[in-house]
């Protein structure tokens, strides 16, 4: 008999069906016993009345994997409105060692470090797996939105020859006896690929040797990168980012609705047709910061998030025109405003979620930018070469997937929405 | 005026339009000059008759990025059946340094090493970019097919604590002062995630410190991984692999038709509703190998590929039941045939493309398998823990994306279909 999932039960009332999954919970009452089965579709209630079956159920440990044949009977109080009667239970594999924390309680009571130590088990909890389903939907929505806009997916190197992009915080590697580094982002490669496809995106792991233990940094995270050519300036990039975000949230609504309910329910933010944008100088004023501050502190970002909510009813806010001094060397300056750039951040609920901007595209501008920072051109040779051979005006952005999901679901720590986080202290499981 | 792509020109005949892209080629004849423009849509022909405009065109180097306003005029001999007249050309950026090889010839005449040294330029050649478009479509098709089958996408660590999975050929890393390694596959993690979602897939980079310089190995490649629970045996895994392949080829047909034409045209193989399968012992007989061979050599695989084509009209062939001795410790044995496994390979046109199989799922079986190989359990602690806590029968497979595209397009070397390959000798660009 073909196995069905627990959420398919309503279509089989009155029939004998097969389900399979994990023993989520057992409740042994006087007259009756219940087995709650967990599978990819959710939870199913199995009713046991026959004494011998009840004895066998009493001996089953939580998390044991079982296959159950039973009769589907409507019951409004069961998880899907349908429960199974007259079950025949078969253990697949062997009885499970009971987990170190109860997976059947509404919320995991174990501390986050304990959950992370036992990640393969903790992730089985519906609230933990729900966050990862949302993450999967968001990544899919990002790709679909950019596919529709003519972007091409790329797969670029994670092992690079120079620790160039942000200087510090790189992991060093032995590459066949030569020094190499893990990529902190696909930045240079996505720019090079703009010379090939004009519009590219990449979804993949990036690596930062973050020496700080914070709730929003990981040593490996999933970066949603996009880059596009033939832009007039950074505003064309912001327009595509708006579409990507709308695609991500649309996919979460479409494909992870049950996961959103499990977590709250979580209400998804609207993405305004035009996300409000303020210039960096104006952002300082709104945040009450001194006008000569070179960057926004977290407290400023929070104040801006509140302002955007209050003044524009928006969870999203662009801050444009960051000072050149605080942006990477490849950032395009604002031609109309010396010292300021065509670089932007997108704040989501008062936290920086996306960094992006227009990039330099003339070879001579790159040489001048590196010279101004006192940097040699040697380590950038392969990158710079492309600009000598004709590159269009372009720009792009990068979204941190885990940070997006954490902010969306209200998770206090990005590790809650990461399957197997890597950080200063954690290299396993 | 909104820019259009060259392949959109037929809809604008008689109108004044803006195009932009790279100077692909110039042809200066006596009475007339032609500029061939390359953009994301393909090629467009611009006709220059006005003497001053002709002089300016003569001074433009190949690969310079330009914007052109012109009048769309039907002409059957032009690339899209439409060419632009009375052009006004504006250089975006600065004149390009001419490339070290001609990008406008039908095929790149530079050697592959030279192409790879100048990858950002070589990839602009329509044949090189076509292969990457096919690659993007194939990866998208893989995900779509598995999404339809209820799989959830995962993002798992690329930095791991033990060099366990295949022992040799791992890259070592300094992880905050501790030894760590780059993941050779997401094998362990996808199995752990089967305990969470039942069906998972992951598309991402994996790393092998391949000490051999061959045409089919890379130090980093893109692995298309899938794993599914509640299988009866490896045949359920093979059925899902068949759907994934059909999805990949369907997406290539739908989304990369022009790229297929550029490369040949390339004819896509049919995926049989039931891909033929032979047991390993039978495969040895067909290949004319001694019956005690423990594995298939490349020559055997080629012979099997020819056999499958001849006998079944299929480019694909499953070889099942590989000897346990040649498969990883987590491989499930064939219960009916001691010494043989429920592991399989899929050959595509006589080359191994996919490895997969049913895995062990009982904790005791893992302990016994490691003991039989004389391996300690310590390095596998986090992995084994999940099996103690209840894991369903499961299996999965991994497809090498670059190898798939190379075999599909007839590329002799996997580096021809990889944007920025990494190998024993190559760490840049």
From TrEMBL, chains A, B:
Transmembrane segments: none annotated. Residues 142-429 form the Aminoacyl-transfer RNA synthetases class-II family profile domain. L-aspartate binds at residues 165, 208, 355, 359. Its EC number is 6.1.1.23. The record marks 79 as: Important for tRNA non-discrimination. It is found in: Cytoplasm. Residues 187-190 are annotated as: Aspartate. SUPFAM superfamilies: Class II aaRS and biotin synthetases, Nucleic acid-binding proteins. Keywords: Aminoacyl-tRNA synthetase, ATP-binding, Cytoplasm, Ligase, Nucleotide-binding, Protein biosynthesis. It is an enzyme of class 6 (ligase). It catalyses: tRNA(Asx) + L-aspartate + ATP = L-aspartyl-tRNA(Asx) + AMP + diphosphate. Pfam families: tRNA-synt_2 (PF00152), tRNA_anti-codon (PF01336). GO terms for molecular function: aspartate-tRNA(Asn) ligase activity. ATP binds at residues 208-210, 216-218, 352, 400-403. Gene3D superfamilies: Bira Bifunctional Protein, Domain 2 (3.30.930.10), Nucleic acid-binding proteins (2.40.50.140). Aspartyl-tRNA synthetase with relaxed tRNA specificity since it is able to aspartylate not only its cognate tRNA(Asp) but also tRNA(Asn). Reaction proceeds in two steps: L-aspartate is first activated by ATP to form Asp-AMP and then transferred to the acceptor end of tRNA(Asp/Asn). Homodimer. Belongs to the class-II aminoacyl-tRNA synthetase family. Type 2 subfamily. This is Aspartate--tRNA(Asp/Asn) ligase. It comes from Micromonospora zhanjiangensis. The lineage of its organism: Bacteria, Bacillati, Actinomycetota, Actinomycetes, Micromonosporales. The gene is aspS.
């Amino acid at each position: 008999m073909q196995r069905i999932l627990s959420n398919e039960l309503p279509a089989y009332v009155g029939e004998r069906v097969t389900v399979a999954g994990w023993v989520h919970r057992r409740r042994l009452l006087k007259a009756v016993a219940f087995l709650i089965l967990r599978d990819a579709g959710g939870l199913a209630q199995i009713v046991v009345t026959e004494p011998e079956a009840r004895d066998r159920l009493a001996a089953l440990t939580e998390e044991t994997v079982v296959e159950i044949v039973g009769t589907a009977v409507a019951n409004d109080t069961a998880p899907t409105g349908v429960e199974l009667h007259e079950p025949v239970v078969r253990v697949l594999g062997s009885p499970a060692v009971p987990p170190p924390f109860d997976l059947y309680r509404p919320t995991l009571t174990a501390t986050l470090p304990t959950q992370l130590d036992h990640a393969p088990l903790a992730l089985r909890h519906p609230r933990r797996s729900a966050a990862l389903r949302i993450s999967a939907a968001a990544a899919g929505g990002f790709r679909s939105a950019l596919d529709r806009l003519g972007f091409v997916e790329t797969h670029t190197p994670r092992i690079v020859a120079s620790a160039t992009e942000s200087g510090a915080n790189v992991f060093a590697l032995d590459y066949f006896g030569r020094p190499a580094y893990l990529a902190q982002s696909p930045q240079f490669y996505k720019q090079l690929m703009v010379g090939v496809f004009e519009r590219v995106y990449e979804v993949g792991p990036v690596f930062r040797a973050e020496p700080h233990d914070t709730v929003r940094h990981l040593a490996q995270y999933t970066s949603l990168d996009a880059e596009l050519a033939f832009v007039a300036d950074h505003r064309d990039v912001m327009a595509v980012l708006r579409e990507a975000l709308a695609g991500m949230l649309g996919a979460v609504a479409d494909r992870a609705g049950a996961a959103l309910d499990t977590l709250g329910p979580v209400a998804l933010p609207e993405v305004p047709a035009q996300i409000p944008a303020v210039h960096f100088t104006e952002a300082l004023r709104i945040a009450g910061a001194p006008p000569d501050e070179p960057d926004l502190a977290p407290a400023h970002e929070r104040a801006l998030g509140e302002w955007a909510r209050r003044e524009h009813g928006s969870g999203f806010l662009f801050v444009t025109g960051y000072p050149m001094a605080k942006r990477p060397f490849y950032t395009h300056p604002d031609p109309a405003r010396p010292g300021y750039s065509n670089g932007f951040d997108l704040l989501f609920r008062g936290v920086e979620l996306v960094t992006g901007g227009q990039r330099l595209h003339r070879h001579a501008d790159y040489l001048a930018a590196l010279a101004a920072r006192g940097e040699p051109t040697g380590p950038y040779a392969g990158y710079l070469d492309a600009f000598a051979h004709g590159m269009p005006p372009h720009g792009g952005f990068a979204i941190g997937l885990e940070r997006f999901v954490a902010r969306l679901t209200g998770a206090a720590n990005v590790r809650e929405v990461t399957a197997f986080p890597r950080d200063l202290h954690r290299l396993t499981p």
